[in-house]
Amino acid sequence: MTFPLIAKTVSGLEDVLTHELETLGATDIMKLNRAVSFTADAEMMYRINYACRTALRILKPLFHFEILEQKDLYEHIYEFPWEDYLDAEHSISIDAVISYTVFTNSQFVAQRSKDAIVDRLREKLGKRPSVDLENPDLKINVHLFKDSCTVALDSSGQSLHRRGYRKITGPAPINEVLAAGLVKLSEWDTIAPLFDPMCGSGTLLIEAAMLAKNMPAGYFREEWGFMKWRDFDAALWEKVKEDCRTQISAVKLNIHGSDRAERAIESARENLRFTGLYDDISVEVGSFEESTPPFETGFIISNPPYDERLKIEDSLVFYKMIGDTLKRKYAGYTAWFISSDLESIKFIGLRPSRRIPVFNGPLECRFVKFEMFAGKKGYPDAGK
Ligand SMILES: C[S@@+](CC[C@H](N)C(=O)[O-])C[C@H]1O[C@@H](n2cnc3c(N)ncnc32)[C@H](O)[C@@H]1O
Fold this sequence. Notes:
Shape: elongated
CATH superfamily of the largest domain: Vaccinia Virus protein VP39
Strand content: 15-25%
Number of domains: 2
Structural class: alpha/beta
Bound molecules: S-adenosylmethionine
Distance between the termini: 58 Å
CATH architecture of the largest domain: 3-Layer(aba) Sandwich
Largest sheet: 8 strands, mixed
């Protein structure tokens, strides 16, 4: 039996998510804003939760209704047979997302939705379920857009960017879903050598290696929301995991990372030890400006500091250094950088051959590509 689902993602990754869902076998796929809707059966829902790299969560809509005035929210949610999904001993949590509605406060929407469910169960079962924001038995998503409300179960539970491998992080780690999305957007062929010269705790390196080896995104994760649902099919879930695991490739990779901060490299090493990927990924302490290219040619994908998150003394000088280093040492490489510092990017001083808009949390960024031609052709100048 198939049913409709919605995969949520980061703004700018809708196309790569659409492609991933197609490849995984979802049907009726439709691109939305920061989300993709599709149809799947339970097996496919498990598979997508386990393997998909660019979805943040997979929602299963339960019912929709119209909201004309505030009291409609409580009344419609109260009417739903929650006792078919929950026992009184269970815990719940509500995520509310609102835009252009009669409500102005998403916390209030979550609170009223919770009241309706709790009141319904107290009425039907004589006891009320508890609220557990950290690790609920049932995570419920209430989405209000204009006068339409959709109530969905969150089949992922914790956001899927929580892969389970990142044991230690630096001060501004990139979200794993965004990192995987950038690797896909870069069109890295998974064979060319790959270098992240500002690798921090190694997220981009690990996501690239997992992609190249076809390791499921959730390989190191232990819990998903659907595992606590009444209709959870443990045997089917084991089969899905086994099936995905048999497709992991033993290919040996050429991936290297460096960072000028010793602590960042220590945390990258710790994460690599945990994932067992240290044969494929090497890391070392060192600044980009003083680096020796680790490969003759290859790809650079990197997430340098942006002014908003990591203070760099003079971001224009810093981005100029990136450009100068690329020109001096990295002929033959294809380099991609993500940054929200749209002014400073210009100081790289090279003309990007692609500029892809993407969000890193609330920060509007560009993912920019520079092709560093080898030989006499010279470098495309930005012509500022
Ligand atoms: C935004 S963080 C990268 C985070 C990383 N993607 C992760 O997920 O952990 C930027 C990194 O650039 C490093 N960095 C700053 N200036 C550098 C330089 N000149 N050379 C090498 N690394 C540098 C910082 O130490 C920091 O770890």
